[in-house]
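Issue 218. Parser rejects a valid record. Input:
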Amino acid sequence: MSTRNRKLKIAVVGAGIGGLTAAAALTQKGFEVQVYERSDKLGEVGAGLQMGPNAVKVIRALGLEDAYMKTASEPENRISLTWDTGQLRSQEQLRGVMEKTYGAAYTMSHRADLHSLLMSQVPEKNIHTGHACVDAENFENHAVVQFSNGKEIEADIVIASDGIHSVIRKKLFGDSKPRFSGQICWRLSVPMDDFLRVNEKSPYPFTGKEYAGWIGPTGHVLFYPIRAGELLNIFAGRVSSTWADENWAVPSATGEMMEAYAGWNETMLSVLSMATEAYKWGIHDRDPLPNLNVGHIAMMGDAAHPMMPTLAQGGAMALEDGMVIARLLNANANDPQQALIEYSKERQPRVSRVQLQARQQFLNNQLHPAPPPISVGWIYGHDAVDGVDFQQS
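Output the parser choked on:
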């Protein structure tokens, strides 16, 4: 194997949460990293994002945990409520227990807050907006990426984090359509104070520190705090046989959302009715890839393993990917292709299992009554920083 005396040139295609995690971790290890983002302006849309203990361990390793926790929320408990009456079905303590059991807290973040935090770890001059990838190709000693603006770059390693519509995935693994999962959802947030005023009539005495879920025969609705408890984030998922629109997110009349949950718990409906605007998503995923690398190119995040949100692990898996690829490139700097082989060997079985378990959990949630959730301890306990599982003391 050849030994390189110069620094590796690494290109990250896509400046979402996964791409920025990889860029931040690699920058901290002294690599030369350039990030190319299709959008003309950096930013992250959406609202709430669940960050389980496995994700928080990555944030901690980047030296960002204290800053992250200033805007994140750590729920006290997770509760399950009956979809129609709102009565308590089950309750599980989260605060304190997750840290002891899995090595880190279970947290909730506003997506934009986490994105900004990760972006702060990458030199501004190394992030290039307005670069939409249109092609990528492997050569003997490097890879080349071409962009719609006519520019072309060469790198020793290319990390593809260009999302579920990944151009690089299509080039390396063939043209295939994302799979509509049978689920649509609405995402919104409301001021926590407004929620707490409405919730006075609820059978369950909310404090604003809960991770609450209503699971019904046709969908599930989640409430949890974000922005250090200032906002209540809402995910309203609904079983649907079709998604006709070519776009992934479309404006939706709030009345359409309310109609979808007719007959559900009155307190929950009164909170949904606070929405002044709503967007509806069609949830898509893909089948697992057989490997996550080809030549000098590695796949990560939604470009590699888009998954249903039923385990709340899409963002967490992207963070793990970024940390693992940085660790292995650092350990194999003289043989970066071997690093990518090891990256695929370590990550492919894990992310594939999460993808498929998320699908199965969605199917289980439609049963009435819904069975107990499939165990996620094996997910939370993993530490991508070292590639080991947390051992409770």
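Fixed in the parser; the record now loads. Confidence is low (pLDDT under 50) at residues 1-5.
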